[in-house]
Amino acid sequence: MHSDFSREGAVADGSAGVKSQAIYHLAPESEIRSGLGSDAYLPARFAADGFVHCAAGPESVLAVAADYFAAVTEPVMLLEIDPDRLTVPWRFEQAAPIEGGGTDHLETADRFPHVYGAVNRGAIRGIATLGTGDGTFRWPDAFAEIGPPGDS
């Protein structure tokens, strides 16, 4: 593990080890598909922002979805990421709002997780649909495993 990785949010999973609390990245389905390569996921916004925007829990995720994706007409997908398995630095930082979005999500957390590089596939625990393109969002009942490269 890199020394600049954040360890915030680690929770005991009831077993012998410690399981990290997941962080989440959300985007329209087409963006997830186009950013998902054989080894890693990198969203188009990375070039402009220098990091992958994430949120740390259901309340923040749903607020971000409402602020930024309410007008999206395709499914909005949610990647569940295990921060302990990331191969690039990440940390909780001040929010970095994207121009044109709402601000309600800023009331859900003081800081948000930012991933400073491509999210390696091994760190992606699962994927789920957060919204179906009608402007409403619901926390998923479960996350599906992400398929092998080329099967996403």
Overview of this protein structure:
By secondary structure, this protein is α+β, with helices and mostly antiparallel strands. Helix content is 15%, strand content 28%. It has a single domain (18-131), classed as ADP-ribosylation fold (Alpha-Beta Barrel). The protein has helices at residues 29-35, 46-49, 58-69; strands spanning 10-12, 18-20, 23-28, 40-41, 52-53, 76-81, 90-94, 111-115, 119-120, 124-131. The longest helix has 12 residues, at 58-69. The protein is globular. The two termini are 27 Å apart.
Summary?
The chain has 152 residues and is of the alpha+beta class. It contains three helices and ten strands. It has one domain: Protein of unknown function DUF952 (ADP-ribosylation fold), CATH 3.20.170.20.
Categorize the overall geometry: globular
Largest sheet: 3 strands, antiparallel
How many domains is the backbone divided into?
1
Q: What is the CATH class?
A: Alpha Beta
**Beta fraction of the residues?**
25-35%
Give the spatial strand order of the biggest sheet: 3-6-10
Uncertain ranges: 1-17
What proportion of the residues is helical, as a percent range? 10-25%
Specify the CATH homologous superfamily. Protein of unknown function DUF952
Distance between the termini: 27 Å
Q: What string, H for helix and E for strand, traces the elements in order?
A: EEEHEHEHEEEEE
What attributes characterize this protein structure?
single chain; 152 residues; alpha+beta; ADP-ribosylation fold; 3-stranded antiparallel beta sheet; 3 helices; 15% helix; 28% strand; globular
